Amino acid sequence: MEYKNLIIHWLGHAGFKIKFREKIIFVDPFQLADNTEENKTEKADIIFITHSHYDHCSIEDIKKIIKPETIVVCTSDVQSKLGKVASHVNSLIVEPGKKYNIEEISFETIPAYNINKNFHPHDNYWVGYVINLDGTKIYHIGDSDIIPEMKNVKTDVALFPIGGTYTMNAEEAMKAAVAIKPLLAIPMHWGSIVGTKEDAEKFVQGCREKGITADILEKE
User: What is the rounded distance in angstroms from the CA atom of residue 69 to the CA atom of residue 179?
Assistant: First the structure.
């Protein structure tokens, strides 16, 4: 999908590839297809990892896209796993509620946690990312329920987990979209492990009924 100055690819589950100018940015790559020429040759400039669960911090997939210059942005619990990727990985360790810069790209970390379940405790300090790419902001929520911190997020695009069980479900994600009011809402965290296309369709329809533009991206 082309959106303003970005090209956004959904890679399945919670994984995305974002092209911005000459930069290739990945967020939570998981079960990447490796049977196309593009996927064999395109490497990441920056990889954002929201937390250490295997479907978000996939060592196998990071190996496919990393190069010596790649910067891996991650929480502290992820850093200990990066030794399985290579003997040296350029990493930037982040905490919730902070602002950072990598060259011309700025971003902030938003807490990501569960309210009424224990899969993603608040005290683990896991995150979502609001990435500012020359004025266009994209918010990858990470694995989270609806939390108070979301109300203060200003973003153009928001990527909502809708699978339920481990994160908010489609109905809850609709409520989160109403609170955040992005210009474009995209469902994620479905089609693998938990969540179905029907969940994604329910989310998109609910958003549109509330006046929020929403689309389902096809997996690439």
Answer: 38
What residue type is assigned to position 160 of the chain? F
Q: What are phi and psi of 136, to 5 degrees?
A: -100, 120
| Gyration radius of the chain over CA positions | 16
Token readout for 111 is: 């807490």
Alpha helices in the chain (DSSP H): 37-41, 59-65, 76-79, 170-180, 197-209
**Which superfamily, per CATH, for 2-209?**
Ribonuclease Z/Hydroxyacylglutathione hydrolase-like (3.60.15.10)
Q: Which helix H or strand E contains 91, and what residues bound it?
A: strand 90-93
Pairing of strands 90-93, 99-102: unpaired
- Ramachandran region of residue 143, left (φ > 0), alpha (ψ -120 to 50) or beta? beta
pLDDT, tens digit, for every residue of 75-127?
999 988 998 998 889 999 999 999 999 999 999 999 999 998 989 999 999 99
Give the separation between CA 51 and CA 127, rounded to whole angstroms: 7
Phi first, then psi: what are they for 179, rounded to 5°?
-70, -40
Q: How many CB atoms lie within 10 A of CB 25?
A: 24
Q: Do the Cβ atoms of 136 and 6 come closer than 8 Å? A: yes
